[in-house]
Amino acid sequence: MIKKHIVPFSVVAALFIMAKVFAYQMPLAQKSLLKEEKLNTTIPPTEKPEEEPKSLMAQLNFAEETLPLGDKKVERKMKKILAAHSYGNTQTHRLQRKAAEWFPIIEPILAAYGIPDDFKYLALVESGMQAGVSPKGAAGVWQFMPGTARSYGLRVNGATDERYNLRKSTVAACKYIKEMYKGLESWTLVAAAYNVGDGRLRKQINNQNQDNYYKMRLNRETGGYVYKVISMKQIIEHPVRYGYAKPKELLAYNAE
Question: Which of 208, 211, 174 minimizes the C-alpha distance to 192?
Answer without folding.
Answer: 211
